[in-house]
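Q: Here's a chain of 296 amino acids. Please give me its 3D structure as tokens.
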Amino acid sequence: MIYSKSKLFLELKNKFDIKSIDVFETPDAAIYNVLAFILNTNINRLKLLSNIEISQDDLNRINEILDKMVNLKIPFQYITGFVYLYNEKYNVNDKVLIPRSDTELLIENAINIINKNNYSKMLDLCTGSGCIGISVAKNSNIKEVHLIDISNEAIEVANSNIKLNNISTKCKSFVSDLFENLVDLNEKYDIITANPPYITKEEYEELSPFVKNEPYIALVAEDDGLDLYKKIAEQAQNYLNAGGTLMFEIGYKQGEAVRGILNQYDCFTNIKVYKDLNSKDRVISCRFQSKLNKKF
């Protein structure tokens, strides 16, 4: 069937409350993403077309996807089963947080720090899909990356992405509650990264229902969202080589709070906050000198 694009969009908008898909900027953006997936093409090409050829099977699948998104609030990425981040493709399902472009700031700066300092070994905590560790492994000079998550299901997804990105020679994964299962391994790392849960319970209540369909454990943290930063800052000292780096993704209001956590320890120096494209705090890094006592 040959559809006028404008007619197709109008029919879909009349059939579904596409405005409720609030994770896209506009209803048209939601439809374009679904069409691009079903027709295996790119959005920019679709935007140039006046007419679109669609089979009945394609139309049925479009309706099915929009129905799941509008009525069940299932994130688009869970429906397609994948997402692109940095230079890589990642499998995702409802056991892991959906990788977002904000995380590319952490990946990019980790790559720069690794290459500048000739780091060779990395640990990625709260790895989820594995996107941080895998993208760093593929795009930097790092020689070995360990991916850690408390969730068995998340590690299964991370393992699938290690295989998908053909990076098993560099990446290994472990199920562990932070450093718990590393205690007996006597491992030391040049860089430790983490994108931990950092949303408060109050903030969670205000989230889009689509985001609420992502794993709660990967989103929400105790102590005003700071619980994991405090635990990692304290424990990471036992696993970092002198001259190593600790890096976090942070919530846009948490820069000073996380800086304050790191400042409690004499061993963390050169604390730096990186801002995203919207000039909001998004990443924080520091250098580790040697394990010392708390300042207070």
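Q: Can you summarize the key feature?
A: The chain has a mean pLDDT of 95.
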